[in-house]
Write a structure and sequence with these properties.
The chain folds into 2 domains: about 5-155, Fusion Protein Consisting Of Minor Coat Protein, Glycine Rich Linker, Tola, And A His Tag, Chain: A, Domain 2 (2-Layer Sandwich); about 165-245, TonB (TolA/TonB C-terminal domain, 2-Layer Sandwich). Helices cover about 15% and strands about 45% of the residues. It has helices at about 40-45, 60-65, 90-100, 210-220; strands spanning about 5-10, 20-25, 35-40, 50, 70-75, 80-90, 105, 110, 115, 120-130, 135-140, 155, 165, 170, 185-195, 200-210, 225, 230, 235, 235-245. Strands 1, 2, 3, 5, 6, 10 and 11 form a 7-stranded mixed beta sheet that branches. It starts with a strand and ends with a strand.
């Protein structure tokens, strides 16, 4: 009889913060509305996990070679507990196996202005099968980068209660360094102006290592973005960007 064993792996998620308004409370005396729920990227919330668990790979799924991603839309309360999980992608058997693991997740409370707030985000697992002479190994990983969906586009409510969605890169090349810079360390820091049409209007260098600047600027100028939206209308945006190469110094 084939011997089946499960190997678990876990990747810690880390990325830049992004959030947007979902629903808001109305406040009196002309004060800006405070969101009751904000959307936060899965990468950010992954870095705020205090206790996590991985699904047990179902034997049936391993023997049948069922694998792939399982993505949930989740609500996290002010204490860091998952209140609601809704599967949005994945094989039904793998989804069922993942639900139990979500009950054991606990997050550091997300603070807005120093006050814990309810969060809506995404959480995912990647299931993969490896066959060898002695049987089947099932691997389960926490997904470190979840494909972007329009409803999770990052943004913030400004001081006038207007929802502002940040620009989102749609296409464009990565910097191509010349051979003489291969393996060398360097950084470039930029201010990028993105027009209402999503095209890069201007790139200003605010710091960095000289040999790396020109290749980075050339690549950034070719980027095409989904433009910033202010109250649903495209607008010009100015944002900062940094690029780092080689071993950490």
């Amino acid at each position: 009889m084939m011997r089946i064993r499960t190997i678990f792996a876990l990747f810690v998620c880390c990325a830049a913060v992004g959030f947007a308004q979902d629903r808001v409370d109305t406040q009196s005396q002309g004060q800006p509305a405070r969101p009751r729920v904000i959307r936060v990227s899965g990468e950010v919330m992954g870095a705020m996990v205090q206790h996590r668990a991985l699904p047990v790979y179902p034997d049936e799924a391993m023997t049948k070679g069922i694998q792939g991603d399982v993505i949930f839309k989740i609500d996290i309360d002010e204490t860091g507990k998952i209140l609601l999980s809704v599967p949005v992608e994945g094989d039904p058997l793998l989804v069922a196996a993942s639900v139990g693991a979500l009950r054991d997740f606990r997050f550091q409370p997300y603070l807005l202005g120093g006050t814990p707030i309810r969060v809506e985000t995404q959480l995912g697992f990647h299931f993969s099968v490896e066959r060898n002479g002695s049987g089947v190994n099932g691997h389960v990983e926490c997904i470190s980068s979840i494909p972007s969906r329009p409803e999770f586009r990052t943004g913030v409510v400004n001081d006038k209660g207007v929802l502002v969605l940040d620009p989102r890169k749609m296409s464009g090349p990565e910097p191509q360094l010349p051979p003489e810079l291969a393996g060398k360390s360097g950084s470039v820091y930029l201010t990028v102006v993105i027009g209402a049409d999503g095209k890069v209007q201007d790139v200003k260098v605010i710091g960095g290592d000289e040999p790396f600047i020109n290749p980075v600027v050339a690549a950034v100028k070719q980027g095409v973005y989904e433009p910033q939206l202010v109250d649903g209308k495209p607008s010009v945006a100015t944002t900062e960007a940094s690029y780092h190469f080689g071993p950490r110094r």
